[in-house]
Specification:
It is built from 14 helices and 9 strands. It has helices at about 10-25, 30-35, 40-45, 55-65, 90-115, 125-135, 140-155, 170-175, 185-190, 215-230, 290-310, 315-320, 385-395, 405-415; strands at about 75-80, 175-180, 180-185, 255-260, 265-270, 275-280, 335-345, 355-360, 375-380. The strands form 2 sheets. Strands 1, 4, 5, 6, 7, 8 and 9 form a 7-stranded mixed sheet that branches. Strands 2-3 form a two-stranded antiparallel ribbon. β7 (about 335-345) and β8 (about 355-360) form a beta hairpin. The chain is elongated, with a radius of gyration of 29 Å.
Length: about 425
């Protein structure tokens, strides 16, 4: 039963449980109807699970007859339920992509203040910002930028050199055949009337702070057009745009509800360091190849921000230092999501198991860019699914010691649960 005091009506199951409990205290249906000022026929509907009780009526009923007793259990806050059609692997990949995209959005805001530092000490989008945003959305600009980045990555001397992507004059002047026309980055920059970005400009108030060169600024914009376009293509990401203001922190609508997990706790693992075990992405856990490219993009943006973060207005610089997306990613081995606890519950009257996995963002990420800790609930898991799907997935992401197949089989046998392939004698 789930009673929601903020809903207009309660669910059919909750209605049925509440009315059954009330009739134990007040067996005469007509008397109960009078107590609730409700037609006798409506009581019959509720008993048979064919109607939903108004919350106001439910509160009156609880005040008069108390609430139904519930089984003892463990309370979990901020819970999310794994949709039946979603695999654990797909869920965690989406979660990592969401977290990385939060950081990318933060770095884009930093680069926006570096490229155009004249902002009257605020982050409001300027006319220049809107023009740059149109350039970044230009399909021809994106196509040429992708080709130049691909050429850069395919050069043999770049495979191990870890050199930054940097355009030169030849790159931006090079014509590309697009839709029957010869188009270059330079022609598109001129088309959008951003040619002033190609001229070095002095900002006296920045004194000797290191400013990006015009070609570096064009490189930033070319690269960001690719990043923004790729982030859009992944459903679980937070959309990053040049002028956008993404919401990094959880809102009340995004915070999950409270869940009481009942039944016997047959397995429990928690990280004894209280830091959590990192979720690791690999070709096995990320077959779509979405996580690693996003991480690579984020690291490139981080490099540029670290290099030029002082080249913006003083007050904005102070603000941005406080909002810097990462403290130190290298120390956390590129782990964005941590697992702190895994629990498995079993109710004797059911052949299913319920799992609770406590998930947290890594401590190296600033609070401004984190989501809250939450508990992932996986309902009605069969022993076959636990052994063949859930445990192998947890092993693949680096949590092989959190719940092992052999120890789980011993625990399933102790609780009289089916072990696929095992003979009972």
């Amino acid at each position: 039963m789930q009673f929601d005091p903020h809903a207009t009506k309660q669910s059919k199951i909750t209605t049925q449980i509440l009315i059954a409990h009330a009739m134990k205290r007040c067996p005469l249906q007509k008397t109960l109807a009078l107590e609730l000022n409700t037609p006798d026929s409506r009581i019959s509907e509720w008993k048979n699970g064919k109607g939903q009780m108004a919350t106001g009526t439910a509160l009156i009923l609880i005040e008069k007859f108390g609430s139904p007793a519930k089984a003892k259990g463990v309370l979990k806050n901020n819970c999310r339920f794994l949709p039946p059609e979603t695999s654990l692997q797909h869920f965690f990949n989406g979660l990592v992509c969401e977290q990385v995209s939060r950081l990318i959005a933060g770095y884009i805001t930093h680069i926006r203040c570096i490229v155009i530092p004249d902002r009257n000490n605020n982050l409001e989008a300027s006319v220049e910002d809107y023009v740059i945003s149109q350039l970044l959305d230009d399909e021809e600009f994106i196509t040429i930028s992708k080709k130049l980045l691909h050429d850069h990555n395919s050069k043999e001397h770049h495979r191990t050199a870890q050199e930054d992507f940097l355009l030169n004059n030849s790159d931006i002047e090079l014509n590309h055949a697009l839709k029957g026309q010869e188009v270059s980055l330079l022609s598109l920059i001129n088309k959008h009337k951003l040619d002033y970005l190609l001229k070095e400009k002095e900002y006296k108030y920045l004194h000797d702070k290191k400013r990006p060169k015009p070609l570096e600024i064009i490189t930033f914009l070319a690269y960001l057009s690719i990043v923004i376009n790729e982030v859009k293509s992944i459903p679980t990401t937070i959309l990053s745009t040049w002028v956008g203001k993404p919401c990094y922190l959880n809102t009340p609508d995004n915070i999950g509800g409270e869940v009481v997990l009942t039944g016997e706790l047959i397995h429990e693992w928690y990280d004894t360091t209280f830091q959590g075990e990192p979720i690791l992405a690999s070709s096995e856990t990320d077959p779509a190849g979405q996580v690693q490219p996003l991480v690579k993009h984020m690291m490139q943006l981080k490099t540029w921000v670290n290099k030029f973060e002082m080249s913006m207005e003083h007050s904005l610089n102070r603000l941005m230092i406080k909002q810097k997306p990462l403290y130190d990613l290298h120390n956390c081995k590129q782990a964005f999501i941590l697992i702190k606890e895994v629990q498995v519950f079993h109710k004797e009257e059911s052949s299913y198991l319920n799992l609770a996995i406590t998930v947290s963002p890594h401590d190296c990420i600033n609070e401004h860019y984190k989501h809250d800790d939450f508990t992932l609930i996986i309902e009605q898991v069969t022993t076959f699914r636990l052994l063949e799907d859930v445990i192998p997935m947890l092993k693949a992401i680096g949590l092989e010691h959190a719940i092992t197949e052999l120890s789980t089989k011993y625990k399933l046998a102790m609780h009289g649960l089916l072990i696929p392939g095992a003979i009972s004698i």
